[in-house]
Amino acid sequence: MVKIKLPKMTDKEIESVLNNENICRIAFIEDTYPYICPFQYVYIKNQLYFHFTNYGKKMRIINENKNVCVSIEKLKPDLSSYFFISIQGMLVQIEDKEILKLVIREIVDKAKRQFSRNFLAAHGFREDDGWDSLIEDKLLIYKLEEFGTRIGLKSY
Fold first, then answer.
1. 20 to 30 A from 146, CA-CA: which of 26, 28, 127, 137?
2. CATH code, 15
3. Average pLDDT by consecutive 10-residue portion of the chain (156 residues)?
4. In a domain, 119, yes or no
5. Contacts 24+ apart (CB under 8 A), 75-84
6. pTM, full prediction
């Protein structure tokens, strides 16, 4: 039996995924084992941005180590078609008010179109608060400063 390697995604295919998907997983480095959490992201001007709540295990970890790996995948239920992308980098908190405003607006706009208000809990808000409550609150926004090469693999 001959083992095969999955085909690599082109840079154009990876860009398309980053522009069209919204959910990723971020692996944080904590002591011996990674800690992985799902996040909504937005991709603006070739940059990945994430909203973080200001509490929880992930915040304790990034205060110690800001290096992460971001994973984005899409699978058909029968696995007849799939891709996955892995991007390594460092999380950097955004302080610039204009960038914050742009990123928060994009997060809210995409969420309104694609997600249930039930997903507000992942952002630290109640469903009754509505998506616009994210605009009114002071949110922690981080961007990924990428290191190395983006890795994307896909089905044939």
1. 137
2. 2.30.110.10
3. 91 95 95 93 96 89 95 92 96 94 91 87 84 78 94 93
4. yes
5. 79/155, 80/155, 81/155, 82/154, 82/155, 83/9, 83/13, 83/17, 83/152, 83/153, 83/154, 83/155, 84/152, 84/153, 84/154
6. 0.90
